[in-house]
Design a protein that fits this description.
The protein has 282 residues and is of the alpha/beta class. The chain has helices at residues 59-64, 68-74, 120-135, 150-161, 182-192, 204-209, 227-230, 236-245, 262-280; strands at 4-11, 14-23, 28-36, 45-51, 77-81, 138-148, 169-172, 218-223, 250-255. It has a single domain (4-281), classed as Alpha/Beta hydrolase fold, catalytic domain (Rossmann fold). The longest helix is centred in the last third of the chain and has 19 residues, at 262-280. Serine hydrolase involved in the detoxification of formaldehyde.
């Protein structure tokens, strides 16, 4: 599959690049960002996937999080895809910020008119890794995933739905129980239909409840002053309770004074890179 390089910038000895390609799953042109650390010049490196939140593109994480130095030091290739298909000309896809463009929710839609293009789950778990493994110096056996908000939800469900695929998972302020929050109800009813039992396949809390057990060591950071926490959009307590019941190891850190922004992410990003490097470089 042909890749078109959009940009390349040297950063902490490595290269931050952005590429465009024609996606088979999404049936449109998609961009993704990839950081190649200095170690990638001489051998294969682990791959760490970042999933961004509502309204984001591939640019937000690479320009705001400050992850490059830690990724360079630990020799991690970091991939950040876009958050939804683009330019599909579907009626209603640009009407609101929390559904449609920039809000793919990392599900495979089953409802018209979304089901043809809005297949972000298959894109981030299958198509994109295959593309990365074919075109870049990564070790397919060493792959992890993390994300923020909608992308934190995405990271958790990708890891929980694919035991053994990812070495580790972490999240910043994830949407932990989307079947019960306004964002999730809106997105899931639109993409997946009105049968709420089908929503549970993309809900981290329900996936944990149905989980026979996992080797994943989950790290979650949550800002205590996050407006979306107090608005009931994130519901981390439900996820933590489900993990405790299933004896799944999870480190949940409620960070005093922090909000939902990339200032929060930038503060703790090195901890998350280190968390993944522990498993990816083992």
């Amino acid at each position: 599959m042909a890749l078109k390089q959009i940009s390349s910038n040297k950063c902490f000895g490595g290269l931050q690049k952005v590429f465009e390609h024609d996606s088979v799953e999404l049936k449109c042109k998609m961009k993704f960002a990839i950081y190649l650390p200095p170690k990638a010049e001489t051998g294969k490196c682990p791959a760490l996937y970042w999933l961004s939140g509502l309204t984001c593109t591939e640019q937000n994480f690479i320009s705001k999080s400050g992850y490059h130095q830690a990724a360079s030091e630990h020799g991690l290739v970091v991939i950040a895809p876009d958050t939804s298909p683009r330019g599909c000309n579907i009626k209603g896809e640009d009407e609101t910020w929390d559904f449609g463009t920039g809000a793919g929710f990392y599900v495979d839609a089953t409802e018209d008119p979304w089901k043809t293009n809005y297949r972000m789950y298959s894109y981030v778990t299958e198509e994109l890794p295959q593309l990365i493994n074919t075109n870049f110096p990564v070790d397919p056996q060493r792959m992890s995933i993390f994300g923020h908000s909608m992308g934190g939800h995405g990271a958790l469900i990708c890891a929980l739905k694919n035991p053994g695929k990812y070495k580790s998972v972490s999240a910043f302020a994830p949407i932990c129980n989307p079947v019960l929050c306004p964002w999730g109800k809106k997105a899931f009813s639109g993409y997946l239909g009105t049968d709420q039992s089908k929503w549970e396949a993309y809900d981290a809390t329900h996936l944990v409840k149905a989980c026979p057990g996992t080797q994943l060591d989950i790290l979650i950071d949550q800002g205590k002053d996050d407006q979306f926490l107090s608005d009931g959009q994130l519901l981390p307590d439900n996820f933590i309770a489900a993990c405790m019941e299933k004896k799944i190891p999870v480190v949940f850190r409620l960070q005093e004074g922090y909000d939902h922004s990339y200032y929060f992410i930038a503060t703790f990003i090195t901890d998350h890179i280190r968390h993944h490097a522990k498993y990816l470089n083992a």
